[in-house]
Amino acid sequence: MGEALRRPTSTDVSNPRLYQDDTWRPLFAQLRRDDPVHYCEASAYGPYWSVTRYDDIFAVELDHQNYSSASELGGIQVADQPKGQERPSFIRMDPPGHTAQRRTVAPIVAPSNLANFDTLIRKRTSAVLDALPRNETFDWAERVSVDLTNMMLATLFDFPSEDRAKLTWWSDVAIANVESPDAVVHSEAERTAELVKMGEYFRKLWDARIDAPPTFDLISMLAHSDATRNLEPREFIGTIGLLIVGGNDTTRNSMSAGLMALCENPEQFELVRARPELIPNLVSETIRYHTPVLHMRRTARNDVELAGRRIKKGDKVVMWYISGNRDEDKIERADEFIIDRAKPRQHLAFGAGVHRCVGDRLAEQQLRILWEEVLARDLRFELMGPPQRLYSNFIRGIRSLPVRIVN
């Protein structure tokens, strides 16, 4: 049966400071080597298991019979949602309820529809790049990453363009760690109040569309689907919040992380300039190397064994994607940024199984077009200071990235 004991240890990788300070690597390297399915007895979020190797994370992802995402069991983060303030959504559900709601929104990011976005994304990307200042420092995260992602979100929702900054704000509110001094909200009550405002705004759009013929946008699709048209108020807020965060954070932070990695590895920037056919590889390698979603949590439905460790019913099981994507036994030279890898799509940053990111191809499309347009202009960049990272153990966010165009 393998080892059955939970060995007490002080290795706690849930501290958000590890990711804000970018000091997480040695802790996960040690866990992967010595105790890859590791029980942390005490943390700010209670006891939890850390799953740190690629194959073990993949096994948990695929086994939703034993490992649940359900909101009523705690949801998808190492931190439980506050009692009475839970915001269920299909990412916090197991099949079959998850399947029906996910199927409602999936068509908008299906490959057959992504081609319809190509021209629009390219036009917007070109305009944003052409408007950047030359030979002076600016914030790439604000001027490029935020701007491009909230424009795309507004398109997906058919949301009023003049108010699209609200989408970025609500995304930041939804994922904020309220313990951080620079958080956009500082209590769960304040977060809830802001998300209620979000719900009220979207409810007006919803009500207008439910009384009109169906259109091909997320709000109309939700409003007209049998699986989602009668969402309870907190589930309505949870579902809208999920779509905003899902459509924002992976892409926004990968846009910033990609530029940072290319500037820190100039030989890779030169390689993609010489071989632009490597841009899709660059996109996948950026997403792996950065890993914008640090973890997902499951709750054990049953007593179960994983890699020789006995997990009890009710235990928190945290899949650390940031660690699985650095698993040296699965990914050669995993700590290096290498855009011509033989298997660039071999990563866990989008999850796997029934909960794999529904918008993964759209995220890749936006990133691909960004780098195509950067290369078309032969833009060359210099980092002008360190990034300002988000205080979070859930989203690996880059709040600010000062850069300069040097040509």
From TrEMBL:
Its cofactor is heme. The keyword Heme applies. Keywords: Heme, Iron, Metal-binding, Monooxygenase, Oxidoreductase. It comes from the Bacteria. PROSITE patterns: CYTOCHROME_P450. It holds the Pfam family p450. InterPro entries: Cyt_P450 (IPR001128), Cyt_P450_B (IPR002397), Cyt_P450_CS (IPR017972), Cyt_P450_sf (IPR036396). PANTHER family: CYTOCHROME P450 YJIB-RELATED (PTHR46696:SF1), P450, PUTATIVE (EUROFUNG)-RELATED (PTHR46696). Belongs to the cytochrome P450 family. This is Cytochrome P450.
